[in-house]
């Protein structure tokens, strides 16, 4: 029987069952992803290279961002989107795509969407320096912007309680007034 995280006794090898982790994060287990309406579970890291399983609920999306390294993203389940240079592409279960960290991009979910995010350098799911909010030209912004151009509130109190999607529809954050 396979165990979810099997360290091979100092051999420098760890085997992880992604199906179990994907199901767990889709069932609501995980921690909030800093700056995005998503939850995630850390999978593996050696401090330089690492990966996380992320769950994005249907209709939610990450703000346009960059990050300090490149990512390989593998769609484990559902249908999602990747937006680059203002154009949005559909990704489905089994698709893998690479995003250069310096290229402004945004990830979203058409249906509940679970992805394996592999990055170097690896930043933890809740790390404040995991991503920098930018516009499509790569200029840093104070208020996160979604791929469609609207602002998104990522107040911890809103995202942790699941209210951010409701306020996004109004496009007004009661805390920030935008």
Task: Give the low-confidence spans.
Answer: 156-172, 174-178
Number of helices: 3
Average pLDDT score: 82
Share of β-strand residues: 35-45%
What is the number of strand segments?
13
Spatial strand sequence of the major β-sheet: 3-4-5-12-7-10
Structural class: mainly beta
Terminal Cα separation, in Å?
Answer: 52 Å
* Name of the CATH homologous superfamily: Jelly Rolls
Rg from alpha-carbon coordinates: 16 Å
CATH topology: Jelly Rolls
Global shape: globular
Order of helices and strands: EEHEEEEEEEEEEEHH
Sheet with most strands: 6 strands, antiparallel
Q: According to CATH, what is the class?
A: Mainly Beta
Domain module count = 1
Q: Tell me what the CATH architecture is.
A: Sandwich
Please bin the fraction of helical residues: 10-25%
Overview of the molecule:
By secondary structure, the chain is mostly beta strands. It has a single domain (5-170), classed as Jelly Rolls (Sandwich), CATH 2.60.120. The chain has 3 helices and 13 strands; from the N terminus they run E-E-H-E-E-E-E-E-E-E-E-E-E-E-H-H. Strands 3-4-5-12-7-10 form a 6-stranded antiparallel sheet, covered by helices on one side. Strands 9-8-11 form a 3-stranded antiparallel sheet, with no helix packed on it. The protein starts with a strand and ends in an 8-residue tail after the last helix. Mean pLDDT is 82; it is low at 156-172 and 174-178.
